[in-house]
Amino acid sequence: MIKGFLTHFGRYILMLKQMFRRPESGRVYYKEFFHQCNEIGIGSLWIVIIISLFLGAVTTVQTAYQLVSPLVGLELIATIIRDSTFLELSPTVTCIVLAGVIGSKISSELGNMRVSEQIDALEIMGINTHTFLILPKILASIFVIPCLIVLSMFLSVLGGYLAGTWSGILNPTQFEMGLLLDFVPFNLFFGLIKAFVFAFIITSVSAYFGYYVKGGALEIGRSSTKAVVVSCIIILLADYGLAALLL
Amino acid sequence: MIEVKNLSKAFSGKVVLDNVSCNLYKGKMNLIIGTSGSGKSVFMKCMIGLIQPEKGQIFFDGKDLLEMNKDDKKELRKNIGMLFQGSALFDSMTVEDNIKFPLDMFTNHTLKEKKNIVNGVLDRVNIDGANKKFPSEISGGMQKRVALARAIVLKPKFLFVDEPNSGLDPKTSLVIDKLIMELTREYEITTVVNTHDMNTVLESGDNILYLDYGKKGWEGTKEEIIFNDNARLNDFIFASDFLRAAKEKRMKELS
Q: Which residues on chain A place their C-beta less than 8 Å from a C-beta of chain B?
């Protein structure tokens, strides 16, 4: 098991190392980068919108349910939503969902290219396949996923506001007061650091499992599942690591 | 010309190629034949640098592939075209973009020039009106021709073809064989074809190498193969009664 882990880890590091080579044609890579931004960003936009709105709404209702003491002001609900959204819910939960959406897509796309010899065809042309196939995906996700997380933070708070005010849990003034109460800008920055790290993990781990797939359709499916599972585990480990280091 | 000297390769101790040497000539159809598991694919993958052999030398116009540095290898690869068994077309790109891809990567042509080149090679492989179609929207035979067009778009010196007839009907197979043969003569390419299609062997084998479980079993031309006295090669080539009868008839004609 340890040998297997070290083999995978070593190959993953080598893959990352080989990725940073001079591209054959800047124009093609530039085009590919924007194509990937579109695939990753626009492709996951709806799921991020839906998840974020509901995360905020559910957090509001459940926080209100637990805050039964008359000594605690209702505006604290908004403060809890804000901090839990910025620190944990938006970056971590959204990235775990994105690991499923983007990770499985990247892994199966590269796996299919490997099995159908498209990667061999690129190599024979003299193209560095690590740089061409993986680097634009990683750069695009590092650029787009933090943007999605910022959107998610906003929508999550909006979801909380709508659920709180429409259900009469708290009024708009209380919500606004709570949002501004003891605001620590670093929390927002911390959420963004997480987004960058998780974006890298999702794309590189999924690309690794897809790129090195061997076999046929069955193995492509298995590698997609592995990519999502391993990405999620590493995201959770990194989540704890970052919290322990930076908070 | 490609010269292969004493090439050996083993996987987990199992010898797949054992001291294979041969010459593959410019402007000729060089065929590698053998039963399944005889090492044909490994031999070809070693030649194109996808697999590192344990021992041996592979000279491309006098330069040893295994001694080349990364830049030399990159330069050589621009002179290599390959037609894969499953065509290996990029399924996210149209036919036109597939063929244009090597031009985008390695040339500074304008878009108009690239389009002209693409239309020229598509015309050469007899494909008309499929520019905007995706690989999944065209037939297997057309996919092979598009892959061939992509392989020759940079006018390579060396063309490697892996099982060109797999999955094709006999008539389309002949069309593909003829096309590869014509392009080989026209552009003076050193073409290496991996095949077990007997039509290809008997129609276009200028230089044939028979691999017998990793060893060089026989080498000769399509004329010589009719008269060969290698029992295992005869069993492989003339496997059916029909082919054996055809061989005897052909021998009578030639003698």
A: 24-25, 27-28, 112-113, 116-118, 120-121, 123-127
Please check whether residue B128 is in contact with residue B122, taking contact to mean a CB–CB distance below 8 angstroms: yes
The residues that bridge with B14 in the sheet, in sequence order, are: B11
User: Can you tell me which residue has the tokens 């002001």?
Assistant: A73
Q: Do A118 and B90 lie within an 8 Å CB cutoff?
A: yes
Amino acid at A140: A
CA distances from A104 to A137, A218, A234, B35 (A): 13, 14, 15, 38
How many Å apart are CA B200 and CA B165, to the nearest integer?
9
Mean pLDDT, all residues of chain A: 92
Dist CA A108 CA A57 (whole Å): 34
Give percent of chain A above pLDDT 90. 77
- The answer on pLDDT for A68 being more than 80 is no
The DSSP annotation for B40-93 comes to: HHHHHHHHTTSS--SEEEEEETTEEGGG--HHHHHHHHTTEEEE-TT----TTS
Only one residue has tokens 């990364």, namely B70
Instruction: Give how far B104 is from chain A: nearest CA, Å.
Output: 7
Chain A residue closest in CA terms to B47: A124
Complex-level ipTM:
0.84
pLDDT above 80 (res A24)? no
Maximum CA extent, chain B: 58
Is the per-residue pLDDT at B243 higher than 80?
Answer: no
User: What count of other Cβ atoms lies within 10 Å of the Cβ of residue B220?
Assistant: 17
Closest-CA residue of chain A to B108: A25
Mean pLDDT value across residues A39-64:
94
What span, in angstroms and rounded, lies between the C-alpha atoms of A120 and A101? 26
Number of domains in chain B: 1
Contact list, A28 vs chain B (CB under 8 Å): 104-105
The amino acid present at A20, given as its one-letter code, is: F
Answer for the pair A191, A89: CB distance below 8 angstroms, yes or no.
no
Q: Tell me if B77 and A28 make a contact (CB, 8 A cut-off).
A: no
Residue B78 pLDDT more than 90?
A: no
- What's the average model confidence in pLDDT over B81-85? 90
CB contact under 8 A, B88 and A127: no
pTM of the entire predicted model: 0.86
Q: Please indicate, yes or no, if residue B232 is contained in any of the structural domains.
A: yes
pLDDT at B127: 86
Within-domain flag for B239? yes
Domain-located, residue B132: no
Closest chain A residue by Cα to residue B148? A121
Residue A28 and residue B104: Cβ atoms within 8 Å? yes
Residues 6 or more apart from B246 whose CB is under 8 A from it? Answer: B238
Range of the domain at B245: 1-74+194-255
Residues of B in contact with A125 (CB under 8 A): 77-78, 101-102, 105-106
Residue type, A194: K
